[in-house]
Write a structure and sequence with these properties.
The structure is a single chain. Helix content is 37%, strand content 24%. The protein has 290 residues and is an alpha+beta fold. The protein folds into two domains: 108 residues, Homeodomain-like (Arc Repressor Mutant, subunit A, Orthogonal Bundle), CATH 1.10.10; 159 residues, Alpha-Beta Barrel (Multidrug-efflux Transporter 1 Regulator Bmrr, Chain A). An eight-stranded antiparallel β-sheet has the order 1-6-8-7-3-4-2-5. A hairpin with a 5-residue loop joins strand 3 and strand 4. The longest helix is centred in the N-terminal third of the chain and has 18 residues. It is elongated and about 70 Å long. The relative contact order is 0.13.
């Protein structure tokens, strides 16, 4: 549960430094994660992006201080990282529903956003079909996009990429290049790969490339290793969003396997993805820990 403790340390550090410059990159380093996997883990486990969490906490505390007349608007803007009192006022009004000048007059209208505390609880009733699988090295071929880690619209953008892909002729090309793969059997892959620049990640829509076949698409070699494989049953994308949260809040906190934070992918076989019976898988590269 070390990485959960690291997340709690991150939350404590944020709380101690709300009025200082906060570097997400440094937080990721302290948690021994890349920027991409740190921000994704934070969001999956806590249900909120780290940037939004910091902003909400600062605006909540600023509201309390303004209500108690402990700080002026111009000072609050400077302390909590805004370029000007005007930009602070816009953010404050959007968050609280009232402008800063009314905070002291009617503090009951202020919105409170409390700090998060991670608690490990034992819960039952959730069946999770997971297996650990060894796979030799293989190659994927497909289309790649480089996305900004901090962009909150990534999920919507990836969804649009799949919509365009499914309406094109490319699915037939992908099936043709992956005819001899007994594991994925021509399934389409949604692949996330961390980048070393700590600012972006690559998202692929791809399939495996059968040995000896040529391809018109970009290729990516995938190293041999262990994978935690999770079965997902249900209509997309709701079912897989729910599964990702379960993986990071229920499986990894108590498992002897931990994510390598290098590559993972979703495996989509042919079928009606809107069906309640649709089955797909999530593959996450893992290491066994002592």
């Amino acid at each position: 549960m070390t990485w959960l403790h690291s997340l709690q340390q991150t939350l404590d550090s944020i709380e101690d430094q709300l009025d200082q410059d906060l570097s997400i990159e440094k937080m990721a380093q302290q948690a021994y994660m890349s920027m991409f996997h740190f921000q994704r883990t934070f969001s999956l486990v806590l249900g909120i992006g780290i940037g939004e969490y910091i902003r909400n906490r600062r605006l909540s505390v600023a509201g309390e201080q303004l209500a108690a007349k402990k700080i002026k608007v111009i000072d609050a803007a400077l302390v909590y990282g805004y370029d000007s009192p005007e930009s602070f006022t816009r953010a404050f009004t959007k968050f609280h529903g009232i402008n800063p000048s009314k905070a002291a007059k009617d503090p009951a209208l202020l919105r409170r956003f409390l700090p998060i505390k991670i608690k490990i609880t034992i819960e039952g009733g959730n069946m999770m079909n997971v297996r650990i699988e060894e796979r030799s090295a293989f190659t994927i071929a497909g289309m790649k996009w480089t996305l900004n880690i901090s962009d909150p619209a990534n999920h919507q953008q990836i969804s649009k990429l799949w919509t365009v892909f499914n309406r094109s002729e490319k699915p037939a090309h992908f099936c043709a290049q992956s005819t001899n793969d007994p594991v994925f059997n021509g399934s389409f892959l949604g692949v996330c790969v961390d980048n070393k620049d700590q600012k972006t990640f690559d998202y692929w829509i791809a399939s495996t490339l059968s040995e000896g076949r040529s391809t018109e698409f970009e290729t990516l070699p995938v190293e041999a290793g262990q994978w935690a494989v999770f079965e997902c049953v249900g209509a997309m994308p709701q079912a897989i969003v729910k599964l990702w949260k379960q993986i990071y809040t229920e499986y990894f906190p108590t498992s002897s396997y931990q994510p390598k934070n290098t590559i993972d992918f979703e495996v989509y076989p042919d079928g009606v993805t809107s069906s309640d019976d649709y089955r797909c898988e999530v593959w996450i590269a893992v290491d066994k820990v002592s």
